[in-house]
Amino acid sequence: MKKQLNATVSWVGKVDWELAKFHGDEYSTHKGSTYNSYVIEEEKVVLIDTVWKPYAKEFVDNLEAEGLLARLDAVIAQHAEIDHSGALPELLRRRPDLPVYCTANGIKSLTGHYHQKWDFHPVKTGDEYDLGHGKKLVFVEAPMLHWPDSMFSYMTGDAILFSNDAFGQHLATERLYNDLVDQNELWNECIKYYANILTPFSPLVKAKIEQVLSLNLPVNLIATSHGVIWRDDPTQIVLKYLEWCQNYQEDRVTILYDTMWDGTRALADTLARAITGASTSTTVVSHCLSKFDKNDAITDVFRSKAVLIGTPCINKGILTAVASTLEEIKGLKFKGKKAAAFGCYGWSGEMTKIVTEHLKAAGFEVVDEGLRALWNPDAEALAAADAWGRAFTGKL
């Protein structure tokens, strides 16, 4: 259903209340999501992005019902990922004459996904599309935010930044704007989105934001591709990104572990109490990775100044929930965080060495060779863990 943002710009996207996983099964979306698409009706009628493939027919049918399909002059494809471009095949099947404006990398990605020879028009930073009535769309390439093809579009006159994935979050809502939703939910989803998707590209985020800010352009709305549209103090999310992209951390320690027979869990509980006792200002969170959502755990890692990773030893290796999370953390390239390993073992005990190697490869500063407890920890082993946890706190 079409929703007016102002006299000539409307939201024509899809709210997906049922979405529980994104990027395959890689990202949890506890609050669902939206696929935000926009239409501009000036002298030219322009569609900006589409929706996820399962909703393609519904999306194009809605454009037709609103009298927009036949009137469209162009499509702006800011990003080729399927949640944004998924309705393009259906749209262009019914309007094969429509030109598609995207980056040169966008042509490669869209052709790779759909194997169609559409009427592509490549654009680069500074190129413009004349909307008429004295207004233009100005394109800004944003490579690796978070794909090589990504770009923004800025609408002059109305001062709307169509930011695609940047500044978004996975939050299903019929209330389009940031000031109309639960603020705790909103900011929790914003930081989770940044931590799990954009962290590896933080240097590029910083450079692109500084480039855009240097233009001193007015911004009345930031129209994202997922979640809310920022209208109340819209640049507040831009300032948050500037904070998050610079080796962000709070006075927080995250403990991530898995356990077989509760020995490593007992160590984790003892370490949480020890750190809290040693530093009353420090927030400590502890998650069993085989039971807790990995993306929420990774968000806590993003927020932390230090992490402890625990696992028992199994077959001279580590438990799979810990191994897979370490692999994902490695790809996220966290900076400026300290770490150490811990766990229980029965006869070989390589687990702390393995985890330590993973942590170093992921860019963490490992401050200790690790804590090991033989078999299930007794009172003496737990006392040693308490002392080790307090000493670890002193190194932060």
What does this structure look like?
It is a single chain. By secondary structure, the chain is α/β, with parallel strands linked by helices. The chain folds into 2 domains: 3-244, Metallo-beta-lactamase, Chain A (4-Layer Sandwich); 253-394, Flavodoxin domain (Rossmann fold, 3-Layer(aba) Sandwich), CATH 3.40.50.360. The protein is 34% helix and 24% strand. It is built from 12 helices and 24 strands. The strands form 6 sheets. A 7-stranded mixed β-sheet has the order 1-2-7-8-9-10-11. Strand 8 (45-48), helix 1 (56-65) and strand 9 (74-76) form a beta-alpha-beta unit. The longest helix is centred in the middle third of the chain and has 16 residues, at 183-198. It starts with a strand and ends with a helix.
Task: Present the secondary structure layout.
Elements: E1 3-4, E2 9-11, E3 14-16, E4 21-22, E5 27-28, E6 33-35, E7 38-41, E8 45-48, H1 56-65, E9 74-76, H2 82-85, H3 88-94, E10 99-102, H4 104-114, E11 119-122, E12 128-132, E13 135-141, E14 151-155, E15 160-164, H5 183-198, H6 202-214, E16 221-224, H7 236-244, E17 252-257, H8 263-278, E18 283-288, H9 294-303, E19 306-310, E20 313-314, E21 317-318, H10 320-332, E22 338-345, H11 351-361, E23 365-366, E24 371-374, H12 379-394
Parallel strand pairs: 8-9, 9-10, 10-11, 15-16, 17-18, 17-19, 19-22, 22-23, 22-24
Antiparallel strand pairs: 1-2, 2-7, 3-6, 4-5, 7-8, 12-13, 13-14, 14-15, 20-21
